[in-house]
Hints:
8-stranded parallel beta barrel, amylosucrase activity, GH, binds alpha-D-glucopyranose, Amylosucrase, 25 strands, 22 helices, alpha/beta
Amino acid sequence: MGVTPHAAHPALDPHAVRARVQARTGPFDADFAARFSEHLPTLHGLFQRIYGEREDWQDALDEVLVLAAESWQQRPAPLKALDAARAEDPDWFTSARMLGGVCYVDRYAGTLRGMHEHIGYFQELGLTYLHLMPLFAAPEGNNDGGYAVSSYRQVDPRLGTMEDLAELAAALREAGISLVVDFIFNHTSDEHEWARKAVAGDPEHEDFYLIFEDRAMPDAYERTTREIFPDDHRGSFVQLEDDRWIWSTFYHFQWDLNYANPAVFRAMAGEMLFLAAQGVEVLRMDAVAFIWKRLGTACESLPEAHLLLQAFNAVLRIAAPSLLFKSEAIVHPDEVIEYISPGECQISYNPLQMALTWEALATRDARLLNQALERRHALPAGTAWVNYVRSHDDIGWTFADEDAAELGIDGYAHRRFLNDFYVGRTVGSFARGAAFQENPRTGDARVAGTTASLAGIEKGDAGGEDRVVLAHAIALSTGGIPLIYLGDEVAQMNDYGYRNRPAEAEDSRWVGRPHRPAEAYAVREDERTVAGRVHQRLRRLLAVRRDAPQLAGNDLVPFHVPHRCVIGFQRPGEVTSILVLANVGDEGVHVDPVTLSGLDPQARELIADVEVDLREGAAIPAHGVLWLEVRPRG
Ligand code: GLC
């Protein structure tokens, strides 16, 4: 249209870019060339938006493209075969057979090699996705459970070697299980080579972090940032030995990377592609909300954070196309959803559903969860939620205050109630959780614990086992990829031993990260035991789900029941739907026939595998769940 591009922003000349890259890498093969042409405009556009103010932005882009081309040249043949297979079946991760598990390598199996002996069990459970918690070289002592990485190319020597990881990835793939590892890309540990060079005054690496001579800028930023680990340090900065200040959102030994510097992007793209080459199939993108900072803002979920993720994603599409990104954004639901799209993170934790499941169990009131299922469950095509009951982290009460207000609930007071309830301070509470990062200045806190302990089993509450099953039944029936914290499926309890382990004592999240409960696993078939009963009931849910295509995908239709304590929704299928009804109350509920009168009277309850006549209504026991296969009334 006759618009002359600005000199610094010339239009993309793909041939010229390709020629420059090939001059350094040699010719492209046909597959790579096709993907290069397809995704170059996207990556170019993103780089221009992120780094276009810099004179060297196109050189920086060239560097990333060279890296991508070299990485593809070295990509192992089995992974290229996987790339081809996934290209034929791009929605593979939305099938009803998807099931995730998560564990710490040392706590579950000792070492990476030790993981092999559990693959049979993972198959028995039906896992297709295994998230191994951070397993990279990290500082001795407290290293935030491995989330302070000293080298992305070295496995923590106590766990094994990078070769062991690649071997395990291959063995898992053989067993139909995709390996998921963390990409901890917001920060490195203070022992990372880049960090050491930065403190030593090497200007190239000083620019990898956000370092300030005095308090002027830190003070200015901290006017609007949130304290994430207030038990560790106030504000967002810590002081270096030479008195300078460095950005450190989490622990003082985790230093935020400076993504305004394109060399950081390139370096981290290199680490990402290195992990891709080991056979990792999903990267859990850690702490996505924090990767870009701007003065005067909360420095969370800024537009550039999305552009950076999209740029990393575009690099993958070119160089390791079968990989997926999973977003870890434990923030306001309006922000969580922003990270999820085929061009950014294809899958995401669903922290709202997780937190509101616990909220409903505590309050015996399903309204907030039903409201979230109604208005915050939808996703773009080609993406999926990872629905979980709890993770290795604390439960943050991330519901929107606006949503709560509509139901007459005051968000602040409600969070306080939930924290008190789950740490067992409320009279009559069934829960035994631990408080995490209580901040007396803001009243904020979060809660940690295993599912069994939070749900009442540890306390001996009569509803404990039912609640464990109910919480999993929600995660297993709302679509996407359900994710089990391994050990919870045999009702493992809190581990208070962390208080005596110096590296863990200050971080109560360790209460919820026990070692593999070998005795519980040994009795998992024995229904005279708690572990056996919980396990057999969960296995039943897993078996039903595997054969229920209605439970795949993300379509969900709310189903209103005139009882506050009932969670209700339908998962539509081609001929029949599954109506999920779960009762968080302490009394049985009888759903009357009128409420069910839009449905054909002949239904089947899939968990117990019994015929139900809906003209008689539906009885849901206290803390009970029904998965009713129903048809609309003919
Ligand atoms: C994520 C991890 C958490 C860690 C933090 C900092 O939130 O899940 O365990 O402390 O990132 O890396």
